[in-house]
Amino acid sequence: MSDQKINIALAGYANVGKSVIFNHLTGLHQHIGNWPGKTIEKAEGTLHYKGHTIDVLDLPGIYSLSTYSLEELITREYIISAKPDFIVNVIDATNLERNLILTLQLLELDKPMILVLNMVNLLKRSGIIIDFKKLELILGIPVIPVIAIQGKGLTESLDRGINLISQEPNPNALPYGKEVEDRIKQLCQILQNTDLPYPKRFIAIKLLEKDAVIEKHLAQSNREVLEKAQQLNLELEKIHGHNSSIVIADERCHLASQIAKQVMTVTKPEKISAHEALDILTGHKIWGYPVMIAILGLIFFTVFKSGNYISSAIQQSLSGFQSYFYSVFGNSVLTALAWGGIASLIALIEIALPYILPFYLFLFFLEDFGYLARAAYLMDHLMHKLGIHGKACIPLILGFGCNVPACLSCRIMETQRERFITGLLTVFIPCSAVTVIVAGLVGKYLGIGWALGLYFLVFLIIFILGKVVSIITPGEPTELIMEMPSYKFPHIKTIALQTWFQLKEFIYIAAPIVIISGIIIEGAYWAKLLTPVNDFLAPITVQWLGLPAITGTLLIFGILRKELILVMLASILGTADFSKALSQTQMLILALVSMLYIPCAATIAALYKEFGWQKALLITVFKIALAIVAGGLVLRLLNVLNFHSF
Amino acid sequence: MTKEHLINLTSLKKNQHAVIVAITAGHKPAKRLADMGLTPNTPIMIVRKTLFCGTIEVKVRGSNLILGKSIASKILVKKI
Fewer CB within 10 Å, N- or C-terminus of chain A? Predict the structure, then answer.
């Protein structure tokens, strides 16, 4: 069986080291994209091993195979439809009992599977001993102890998985309680002539769990099965006194606990170790907060100080490039358009490399280290007031630096709904470029009080928006239920690889968007469309917002990079003394509109990457509308209050 | 077992042990809790709480979980 193509899929909880194993196996031969039609990450890679070409798929981290989240549904559908040659169920050895609950569900899918017990090196410090051989005997599938960050046990896992392919899968039957098993059998019998691709036992169990997707499948073809299931569910509920879906989950928990008891011995853990001391400090009800502020502040300043430094270094080294470009290619419409595209690509590189690269490194480090869960724990109560849960504080804080990495980090939110609400709120956070505008116009000419006032207004808008959107967005508000992982030192190579592939993916998506918008704006400039555009926008800019007509152009250039609003204004005026062109009221309104209106092209690209084009467009249009409404209202309010403009 | 013995998880103190009796949340969150091992009769321990009874960290089935205030208040337990 040499040179055979093999498909394997890694499945398991989040934070069990799936991605470490994935990166160990595939290295640079991987591709990160989205599942078709969904904005959930799909990581695929290839490795050559003993004459086999093995395609590895890293399934999203899940807690069960219910249809609670899209990730769970994707995992289930993938395993059934793509028929991987074997499943690698990765579990955290220090958290055996709870992880086994998912293992039992995966076994119900009746596919070849191996169980990889990761982080066995951490068992000792938790005072746990596991009898791997006994676990293997009980489950009837290969069980391999692994230390993923050291690469230990991975070849054995592959060998044993590959051995499974030529054999009939033969996992042991792990029966539930009698009253449940009887009902599973009854359903299996009448399921004889169903054409659903799932194993019969799986369908029967899911029917007793009231699984909406399976019920929907059967509603068309097999009504009598559905009716029988409803009757059986009622019987179960009568016996146990609670919902049949809970009864099944409880059976599974019971079974997992029985197995764990048989194979696991817990002794007294070693004395308080460094990671526990760190845990006590970072999760402390008072000290946890200053520590969190210090950590996030450190990241913030490192990313943006080093980002500014590298960004301006790139800018300087490329500063002569524009005149060089024109001297080589001549000065024509075509070269100008080409330059428009190149300049915006350079601008993208100036953002992507210095800001997004270090940011991804920090984000993946904190996530793998286990700190993000602590931040979520500390901030949940506060974030709930915005209609989202604790983890959202990370994107929101990052947004002050740059909205692009902030949007990209929304992926840490568990559900699509939360991800969207967090993304929407994040793009309202005034980024560093907007801060430059506010400081350069309002802070300089009207005073710091007015600048802070603008910030307060934007925070108020974010707060109200959070409340409103969490009410109108379909779906239940998510309750915070998540694993609190113990601290562990991350695998640096995995973080580096993850960062590299995420960055690459972002540039692929963002480059066309920023290049095209650069060319269009440069084309409009050459076609002398800017004056007509100013005139066209005049009803909004001049009549509604009370700004000079020239701001139409400025706001359009601001789509490329927000700070261009100020830079262009200075170059058009020929001076950086803005008080010559704008009244104080106009400065205030221009700053407010700049804060609220359209996200910059790179942020739109980030929104597109994380949420798909429909939601990116929705957010963009909404921001423009809100900026116009808020700007006009504030202007009228100032006039009523008789604010003196001069 | 009478009603008086039942208290809500949020009213337990740090390091107190209890047993889950019932979960009064909606179908989806209740199922989620059950899938993660929080079913009736499961022992539970409070590891820590944030200020003003915000978020709770619990130990269940040998590992730690964090629960937001609203879901925690829907878990009814009996002190042991």
Answer: C
